[in-house]
Amino acid sequence: MKKIRRKYHTLLIMGVVCVLAIHACRKDTLDPLGNEYISTEEGEETPGGKWNTVADVSTNAFSFSSPGLTGADNQTAFFVGNSFFKQNWVAAPASTLARDGLGPTFNARSCSSCHLKDGRGNPPAYDGAPSTGLLVRLSVPGVSNNGGVIPDPNYGDQLNDQAIPTVDAEGTISISYKTINGTYPDGTAYELQEPVYAIKDMKYGPFAAGIMMSPRVGQQVIGLGLLEVIEDSRLLELADETDANGDGISGRVNYVWDMKRHVAVIGRFGWKANQPTLHQQSAGAFLGDIGITSSLFPDQNCTGIQTGCMSSPDGGKPEIEDADMDAMVVYISNLAVPARRNAGDAAILNGKKYFNRTGCAACHVPRHVTGTHPRFTNLSAQTIFPYTDLLLHDMGPALADGRPDFLATGAEWRTPPLWGIGLIHTVNSHTRLLHDGRARNVEEAILWHGGEAEKSREAFKMLTEANRKDVISFINSL
Ligand SMILES: [Ca+2]
Ligand SMILES: [Ca+2]
Ligand SMILES: [Ca+2]
Q1: pLDDT of residue 37
Q2: Minimum-distance ligand to the CA of 292?
Q3: pLDDT tens digits, residue range 322-346?
Q4: Whether residue 212 sits in one domain with residue 95
Q5: What pTM, to 2 d.p., does this model score?
Q6: Do 17 and 166 belong to one domain?
Q7: From ligand 1's centre to the CA of 100, what distance in Å?
């Protein structure tokens, strides 16, 4: 009894000291083994920085504008961009002149059908099941003049599985899953599902020889303006292409073609860092996914053999006007990042410790400071916690799509940011992860890691079940 009381007293005193000197107790603390934090770091709980974080755990968690986005013009543009993201386009000609020009071939009628509530796409659970957002990129061997992919001559660089009524869709994606069984060193069993894809109902002849396919789902579109202004020098400093430090991890930047500046620049967006800017990513999505032309991509998405596609009426030249395209860029640059939940809980801090210890943070780099954004001061000089290095990593044969994209090989993927990942379930009612959504939860996503991340995956598997759970809880608190 005495002992308990003494312990209680000590705790009480510690508590009082902590309240008096809250900063001292919350300060970054190293554990006895070295440089691991055992309390929350400054700024960690507001991962989008001071001006771009919103504490909301509702289904709208990904849909808020950055609180620091000021100015009536910006607010209006965000609002307009939001409506262009969410509303359906219709076939031309139509009475709604601002939103016609859908297709002729397309994958979805709006951005938000794949990024539902600004969140994550959901691949079909079984063959024929509905999918929100799985698309298949296509190319044939070789490199184009600007260093990019060479599209299939009949199907282009993406399979468009829908079309306006007068035109044939290109085909349909069929998916099935093979079960893979495994066990942790402690004997706990796990099961993964490996997707197998086939293209059916092909309406424009066979694919060219050597066709390569890359199935991908759409990511949550939060905090992207912040990622756009992490300095190039920071990414080059994190890169270690020849693995000079010998840790088995050799991240490198992708260089991709900037269509506006006509120069190769560092790629940041997409699963292979295959797009350089949010403008080009969005304009590319308008054309490739919805069939909407813009000043950046003025030609309809039709191949030579697709005569019905070529002769269909358009919805203007271009179909989305520059001002609306710009509003989309304002929107997609300024979606706030959700605040962390329960970041200081003991289990979550323990998970964070093992996240660092098993080497996850070597690629999922927690912290960056953004550079200067030319337009939005809220995005400048922000301390952010996206958990990515934006670099390409060889993730091994199991995850490889075998389809190079600029400098990215068929086995390389960009480290995805992990911020917001724990709210995907709340927003999108599913927890499908990785580039094609094959992982059914965080644990499966980790177990798919290979290549440069194999050592890290093995270290995770060696943890006790309790520590593994804590790592997963930590990720779900992001
Ligand atoms: Ca069109
Ligand atoms: Ca196509
Ligand atoms: Ca290295």
Answers
A1: 57
A2: 1
A3: 999 999 999 999 999 999 999 999 9
A4: yes
A5: 0.94
A6: no
A7: 8
Enumerate residues with CB within 5 Å of ligand 2 (an ion): 155-156, 160
Which ligand does the CA of 242 lie closest to? 3
Residue 170 CA to ligand 2 center (angstroms) comes to: 7
> Which ligand is nearest the CA of 151, by number?
2
Q: How far, in Å, is the centroid of ligand 1 from the Cα of 196?
A: 31
For residue 11, give its domain range. Answer: 1-28
Q: What is the pLDDT of residue 127?
A: 87
Closest CA to 478 of 391, 417, 405: 417
Q: Partners of 138 in the beta sheet?
A: 213
Q: How far is the CA of 111 from the centre of ligand 3 (A)?
A: 37
Q: Are 6 and 99 found together in one domain?
A: no
Q: How far is the CA of 390 from the centre of ligand 3 (A)?
A: 15
394: CB partners within 8 A, 6+ apart: 250, 409, 411, 412, 451, 452
Cβ partners under 8 Å of residue 188, min gap 6 = 465
CA atoms within 13 A on the CB side of 135: 26
Distance CA 417, CA 434 (A): 11
Q: Are residues 3 and 43 in the same domain?
A: no
Q: How far is the CA of 269 from the centre of ligand 3 (A)?
A: 22
Cis peptide, bond prior to residue 185, ω within 30 of zero: no
Same domain, 144 and 119: yes
Mean pLDDT, consecutive 10-residue stretches, the chain (478 aa), reads 44 41 43 60 96 98 98 98 97 87 98 98 90 94 98 98 98 96 98 97 98 98 98 98 95 98 98 98 98 98 98 96 98 98 96 96 98 98 98 98 98 98 98 98 98 98 98 98
Ligand nearest to the CA of 241: 3
Nearest bound ligand to the CA of residue 297: 1
Domain count, the chain: 2
Least distant ligand from the CA of 316 = 1
Residue 129 has what pLDDT?
87
**224 CA to middle of ligand 1, Å?**
26
